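Minimal example, chain plus magnesium ion.
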Amino acid sequence: MSDLEVVEASVNDAAEVCAVIQAAMRVAVSAQERVGPPATAQQTVESVAEVIERDGGLLCRVDGVPAGALLFADEGNGALRLRGVATLPHLQSRGVATAVVGVAEEVAADRGYDDVVLRIRSDLPATVNFWQRRGYAELAPPAGTCLTLGKALPVEVVTRSPHDSWAVGGCIARLAKPGDVVILTGDLGAGKTTLTRGIAKGLRVRGEVTSPTFVIARVHPPMGHGPALVHVDAYRLGSTLELDDLDLDAALDESVTVVEWGQGIAEGLATNLLSVAIERTRGGDTVAARRWGQAAEEDAEDVRSITVTPTGARWVGAGVRSAVTASSTYVAP
Ligand code: ADP
Ligand code: MG
């Protein structure tokens, strides 16, 4: 087993970072000679040190030897740009790139960014594939051989009351536009309907949101000019086919559709999804409470985690992380 570590690069690492980038670039240039015109600026140790000082970067070592690197750039608009991910060719199969990207996304989230963006070559299918598998979507049509990709970062909030779940719903309503699909996952009683009530309040739609026992889908028309809310309970739906059978398509692109129990069923409704997973992390269930080893009074506290995961280009630039993170101060319209 080799030992792989990813660290935030300091100015002292500039020479190593630069060496990795240059080695990777030599390979890229020889590939370019085969598939397209060469066009890449040279990096020097000084220019790399400057970038590290300003926006930072990452260095990955395998058994202590530099194996991968990237540089960060603040794009403004809540996006952190990755300036290429360089991995040494002979180590490319060792998970170096995956590890570096994983840490880059953690750094972006820690620094309060909503999105990670980057530009890659569109004529290298393996590279395009690598990023798409990690949830990076095309933000614009390719410009020449340059492709701009981006990913809206997932966000987790911890709740302690039904109001907190409701407020997360309110924040989602603020982000939502006609045609959006929100998929809610979580056990019975997790708070899916409570969160949907927050969305309904935020969208200012008519009718009470209930756990529909016999009704599979209910349309809540807007009181103002916004979209309607289509609230679907997919609990008794076995497959995607049956959801098609609901014959909701007519309203979907003019509505915000929220599907409880929608995982594995509703993904086909839109390419741009917000997936919301609610989990009890403590309390409510004594086994969980014991496992967490909490004091008796804390055992009674009902702590849940809500993770919002955006999928698709639609959410890049929408500010999902900041909006959901601010749910503790949410005030309904
Ligand atoms: P679901 O639709 O997932 O089955 P509900 O929204 O009907 O769940 O909520 C079930 C119960 O849990 C309700 O009594 C609700 O008030 C409560 N609840 C919802 N969210 C939370 C939360 N974050 N913390 C504590 N209780 C909650
Ligand atoms: Mg429900």
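The two ends are 56 Å apart (CA to CA). The mean pLDDT is 87.
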